[in-house]
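TASK: fixed-backbone design
INPUT:
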């Protein structure tokens, strides 16, 4: 069992050789644990990587993945646009003076009053996947641009959206025709292959399935301005060691895109792909207990306040966890690692390889924790959201 864990661990390290921060540096900063530390450079580099691999595309960061003000500022500076899911998120962008032409309202089912507030601010691009939503947009944001979200095959993704969102491909033409009747502008088609996708062809396959519809629309006089590829770009977590590289995804996707009868402008809505590997969480061991065949380490951060996606039904993500201090002569052992709350699902992992003598007071680094961690944090049992710092 230990051999298997060590092998897996080494494979991940090799795939991501440039770990975000050096443990000595992390030790030197000595903030009160738990805390998140973000690399500004990694955020910008990730954004630039999307721009490079998807030339001429529009990148709208899905701020649901991380809506910390500093993150939004960094991405604003870099030139990013934003995919927004509510007026609460919109308010954050307004405070940063992000102009409406950098914002799309990407959830395809929205409260009417929120559509009106986006429109009031000047946002004129809305996702939609039903006739009733079209009517809502026409009333609350007259004359706006709409893009139709279609279901995508999300079988290979950890988080699947296609049961809740997206219309059948056959409904695209009726919906866009109705949009025209309602005085709205047909802007494009969007899809989401599911978050933390594992198939590099997932985006390409959807594009291929849309080819004939795009032709039919053109014959009807509807030329799409954009094709929105959504999010889904994965991070190399310990639990997704074979996740494809962005370059593999991009080359498969662009190949299919070029086969379209014409090339609408591409919009991408990466959340995880921009922010996941730009942060670590540093947490401290608050207890070491032998229990039912395992050695348990309890930390001062857990699933509720910092690592929501480690929970079963929330992805069961297994992050790479390393010790802040090097292994001494004691060797390494497997540990179960849990959060501080009194709730039994608050278990971060049952199998973490760490120095055998790790004990209370030692600090652990939990890698690649920038996405859906702070934005999903809740103060269950009163444990607050960890502070975030930026270097
Ligand atoms: C409409 C939309 N766009 C983009 C994203 C971001 O997805 P990811 O973080 O997988 O890139 C989401 C995630 O829920 C979404 O709902």
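OUTPUT:
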């Amino acid at each position: 069992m230990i051999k298997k864990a060590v092998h897996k661990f080494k494979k991940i390290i090799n795939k991501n050789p440039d770990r975000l921060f050096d443990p000595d540096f992390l030790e030197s900063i000595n903030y009160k644990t738990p805390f998140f530390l973000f690399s500004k450079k990694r955020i910008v580099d990730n954004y630039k990587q999307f721009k490079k691999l998807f030339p001429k595309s529009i990148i709208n960061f899905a701020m649901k993945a991380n809506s910390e003000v500093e993150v939004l500022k960094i991405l604003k500076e870099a030139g990013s646009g934003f995919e927004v899911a509510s007026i609460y998120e919109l308010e954050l962008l307004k405070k940063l003076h992000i102009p409406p032409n950098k914002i799309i309202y990407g959830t395809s089912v929205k409260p009417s009053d929120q559509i009106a507030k986006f429109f009031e601010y000047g946002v004129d691009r809305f996702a939609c996947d039903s006739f009733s939503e079209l009517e809502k947009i026409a009333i609350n944001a007259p004359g706006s641009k709409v893009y139709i979200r279609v279901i995508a095959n999300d079988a290979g993704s950890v988080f699947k959206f296609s049961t809740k969102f997206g219309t059948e491909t056959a409904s695209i033409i009726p919906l866009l025709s109705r949009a025209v009747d309602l005085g709205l502008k047909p802007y494009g088609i969007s899809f989401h292959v599911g978050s933390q996708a594992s198939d590099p062809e997932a985006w390409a396959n959807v594009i291929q399935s849309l080819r004939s519809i795009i032709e039919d629309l053109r014959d009807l006089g509807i030329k799409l301005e954009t094709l929105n590829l959504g999010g889904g770009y994965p991070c190399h977590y310990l639990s997704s060691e074979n996740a494809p590289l962005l370059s593999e995804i991009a080359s498969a996707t662009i190949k299919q895109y070029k086969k379209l009868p014409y090339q609408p402008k591409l919009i991408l809505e990466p959340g995880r792909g921009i922010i996941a590997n730009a942060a670590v969480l540093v947490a401290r061991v608050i207890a070491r207990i032998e229990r039912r065949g395992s050695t348990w380490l309890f930390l001062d951060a857990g699933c509720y306040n910092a690592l929501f996606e480690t929970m079963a039904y929330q992805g069961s993500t297994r992050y790479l966890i390393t010790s802040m201090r090097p292994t001494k002569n004691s060797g390494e052992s497997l540990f179960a690692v849990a959060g501080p709350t009194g709730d039994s699902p608050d278990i971060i992992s049952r199998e973490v390889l760490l120095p055998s003598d790790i004990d209370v007071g030692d600090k652990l680094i939990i890698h690649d924790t920038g996405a859906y961690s702070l934005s999903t944090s809740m103060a269950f049992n009163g444990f607050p959201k960890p502070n975030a710092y930026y270097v």
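COMMENT: The pocket of pyridoxal-5'-phosphate is lined by residues 62, 64-65, 83, 106, 192, 195, 230-233, 269-273 (CB under 6 Å).
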